[in-house]
Design brief:
By secondary structure, the protein is of the alpha/beta class. Helix content is 24%, strand content 23%. It has helices at 15-23, 80-96, 105-113, 150-155, 218-232, and strands at residues 5-10, 30-35, 50-53, 100-103, 118-119, 139-145, 159-164, 169-170, 177-183, 188-193, 202-205.
C-alpha cells in the first residue's frame, strides 16, 4: 500500500486521545477519519482501510437480549444511537474484511455484535477490581495471556500488567471468538477470532493502550503496530 492509510476511529467523549495515539504511529501515510454517530457519516467507511472502536458508553442490554440488565447500567451513559451506528460499522468491517482494533467499549460492543452477552456491572457480579479508584486514580491489575494468540506473539510473555477503567465485561463469549487474556478474577481482557473462524484481523482489548504510561511497551504501541501492519499487509 503506497497511498494514504485511512483509519476510521469511532467518535466518543475522549476521541482526541485516540486520534492522537493512532497519529503517533511512525508512518506519514496515515490519515484519520472520525466515524461519528452524531454526524451520521457511515458513508465514510468506504474510504477506510481499518477501524478503531473506542471506549465510552455502556452498551444497551437490548442489543444482547437481556433488557433486565438495564437497571445495572449507568443510565446517563447509554447511547442506543451510538450502539446502532457501531453495529453498522461492524457489519461493514465483517463484509469487507477490514481490520478492527477494539478498545474497552470496543471489546464489549464487538462481543455483542458476534452474538455474545455482557455483565452490565462487574461489582454486582462480585468482580470489583476493574474501575478506576474512587479518588480518580488509575487502577492496574495483572492478566494472563493465552500462549497461542496474536497477543502472546506481540507481548512475548504469558502475563502482563494493564490499566483498567471499565465496569462492564464479557458474560457469554460471541460466536467465532477466543478469549486470549484473562484477569485474575476471570474477566476477559482480550478477544481475537478463533483459529478456525473466517474473517479479517480482529483484536479487542479491555484496557486502554492509548493511556498507558509507558507507550513503547508491547501492549500499548505494539498493539497499534500490529493493527497497522494488518491494515497495510
Amino acid at each position: 500500500m503506497t497511498d494514504k492509510i485511512i483509519i476510521g476511529i469511532t467518535d466518543c467523549k475522549k476521541y482526541d486521545t485516540y486520534h492522537q495515539w493512532v497519529a503517533q504511529h511512525p508512518d506519514d501515510r496515515i490519515e484519520i477519519v472520525k466515524l461519528s454517530h452524531h454526524l451520521h457519516n457511515l458513508s465514510d467507511l468506504r474510504k477506510c482501510h481499518g477501524i478503531v472502536l473506542t471506549g465510552g458508553e455502556d452498551v444497551h442490554p437490548r442489543f444482547y437480549n437481556k433488557p433486565e440488565y438495564y437497571e445495572f447500567c449507568d443510565k446517563d451513559d447509554v447511547s442506543e444511537t451510538r450502539d446502532e451506528f457501531e453495529w453498522q460499522v461492524l457489519n461493514y468491517t465483517e463484509k469487507n474484511s477490514l481490520p478492527v482494533l477494539g478498545i474497552c467499549r470496543g471489546l464489549q460492543v464487538g462481543n455483542v455484535f458476534y452474538g455474545g452477552t455482557l455483565i452490565p456491572h462487574l461489582p454486582a457480579w462480585g468482580k470489583d477490581d476493574h474501575a478506576k479508584y474512587p479518588n480518580g486514580q488509575t487502577r492496574f491489575h495483572g492478566i494472563q495471556i493465552h500462549p497461542n494468540s496474536l497477543l502472546h506473539q506481540l507481548a512475548g510473555q504469558l502475563c502482563a500488567n494493564i490499566n483498567s477503567y471499565h465496569h462492564q465485561g464479557v458474560e457469554q463469549l460471541g460466536n467465532g471468538l477466543l478469549v486470549t487474556a484473562l484477569a485474575e478474577d476471570g474477566v476477559a481482557e482480550a478477544i481475537e477470532r478463533a483459529p478456525n473462524a473466517k474473517g479479517g484481523f480482529l483484536l479487542l482489548v479491555q484496557w486502554h493502550p492509548e493511556r498507558m504510561q509507558h507507550q513503547q511497551m508491547p501492549l500499548a504501541a505494539g498493539l497499534r503496530r500490529i493493527f497497522i501492519d494488518a491494515v497495510t499487509g
